[in-house]
Write a structure and sequence with these properties.
- The protein is an all-alpha fold.
- It has one domain: Growth Hormone, Chain: A (Up-down Bundle), CATH 1.20.1250.
- The chain has 16 helices and no strands.
- Helix 12 crosses helix 14.
- It starts with 15 loop residues before the first helix and ends in a 6-residue tail after the last helix.
């Protein structure tokens, strides 16, 4: 009688190349989480505009939607490690300029292009009924332009990073690698916002007028990108001969054709995109922290960290369990639960209940991430992974950043009609209801998704 094969929860972490990648990426993401928390808090405090929080997402998603398909082609034809190294260096430079702009924003007052851009922002804000806003700070348009550059970098980094992962581990360890990748990312999303919120609260308490209040977080991200560069440069990959291929429209659309011909992949991507697009409340957390729950910068850090606390807890549970059974059914139930928890968060005026619902949202979202990412990578041939992951990046960007824009617009309209408390609450509840409707639609449209059993 043969003994059952024991499940090794640390299989992927025993591989040196993967270990270097995940450590470097974890540090990079820690800096990113600190910076992203700071961006929302800084821009909302400078403008008092919920719409601007939505524009933060829009400025990052436009380049992703425009460039992901050619970026996918590049990821299938150029060394993926090289793409990541170049992207990391440019990202570090972007955050360096962010920090300098925040630190010396007073010297930008009167610069005519920035004055004009602030006028455009004020006009847009007025269209959505916002009145008590301030668009006189020259740093605001600078930040939005830099976020567009950041989105351009992301459009190339996304397909390259996702396509690199299968080259670092064996197929039998891939689901474990995805789980640990998600776990490390979510760990940074717990620690990063808390560090940012605590640091912002401390500096603000010591000296509310300190020019380093926000810029220190951006400079921390610059250092994190430097560490990522060092560790990525030490990864050794087997040489892969890639046949040259012209960047034609047909070549760039090959990934989209592959996705639309594989109903399980299409269903999983669509479910994630529309569920998060409607149900994501992250963009509005600065509004909830300041105007609904009245918990300040430290409370914002806790709110930003809560979904990731739930996600990392779930990721660790999944890593220590055998491969998931009934993956398709679990995916649908997890996303439906995500929508329900979002509704309760939107209705809550109690800080503890809001935190609990965000923790639950993160835990359920992690189930979706692990299942979807494993399905996409293992069912896609390596010479197509860059282009397929480019489509996946477009789906993710649409859900996150366009979702942030949707949240910002609905909140701005809600505030105009219902006030600063009930307006954001109504926007989040509406999104949660939309998520549950999406789950029902996908379950009927793609029954193949419900029938998935084990992830191989």
């Amino acid at each position: 009688m043969t003994e059952p094969v024991r499940h090794d929860p640390y299989a992927a972490l025993r591989i040196p190349n993967y270990r270097r990648y995940v450590i470097g990426n974890t540090i990079s993401m820690l800096g990113m989480q600190m910076a992203q928390t700071t961006i929302g808090w800084e821009l909302y405090n400078r403008t008092h505009s919920a719409l601007v929080l939505g524009l933060v997402g829009l400025m990052q998603v436009v380049p992703v939607l425009l460039l992901s398909l050619p970026a996918g082609h590049v990821a299938d034809r150029v060394n993926r490690k090289t793409i990541i190294l170049l992207g990391t260096a440019v990202a570090g430079l972007v955050y360096l300029v962010m920090g300098l702009s925040s630190l010396f924003s007073v010297h930008l007052i009167g610069v005519k292009p920035l004055v004009w851009l602030n006028g455009v922002l004020a006009s847009l804000s007025g269209l959505f009924g916002e009145t008590k806003v301030n668009f006189s700070d020259p740093h605001v348009p600078v930040m939005l332009l830099l976020l567009m550059v950041s989105g351009t970098v992301r459009s190339f980094m996304g397909p390259a990073k996702q396509s690199l992962l299968p080259l670092l581990v064996e197929p039998k360890c891939f689901a474990n690698a995805v789980t640990w990748n998600s776990s490390m990312f979510e760990t940074t999303a717990v620690i990063g916002p808390m560090l940012a919120g605590g640091t912002l609260a401390l500096i603000g308490w010591l000296n509310p007028e300190s020019p380093w209040l926000y810029s220190s977080m951006y400079f921390a991200q610059v250092m994190a990108q430097g560490i990522m560069l060092v560790l990525m440069s030490r990864i050794q990959l087997a040489k892969i001969v890639r046949l040259p291929q012209a960047m034609t429209l047909r070549s760039m659309l090959a990934g989209a054709r592959f996705v639309f011909s594989h109903k399980v992949i299409l269903g999983a991507m669509t479910l994630d995109m529309f569920a998060v697009l409607f149900g994501g409340a992250t963009a509005l957390l600065p509004v909830f922290a300041k105007d609904v729950l009245h918990v300040g910068a430290l409370g914002l850090g806790a709110l930003r960290a809560a979904p990731s606390l739930g996600a990392v807890t779930m990721a660790l549970m999944l890593a220590h369990r055998p491969p998931m059974q009934n993956a398709g059914r679990n995916l649908l139930w997890a996303v439906a639960g995500f929508g329900l928890a979002t509704i309760v968060f939107g209705l809550s005026t109690y800080f503890w209940l809001s935190l609990l619902m965000l923790v639950l949202c993160g835990a359920l979202d992690n189930v979706s991430v692990v299942i979807r990412h494993t399905l996409v990578q293992l069912q896609t041939p390596d010479d197509m992974r860059g282009r397929v992951n480019a489509v996946n990046t477009m789906f993710i960007a649409s859900s996150n950043e366009i979702g942030a824009l949707e949240s910002g617009i609905t909140a701005a309209i809600g505030i105009a009609f219902l006030g600063t408390v009930f307006g954001p609450m109504a926007a989040v509840v509406f999104g949660g209801l939309g998520t549950i409707a999406v789950v029902s639609t996908v379950a009927v449209k793609w029954p193949q998704l419900r029938q998935i059993k084990r992830l191989h």
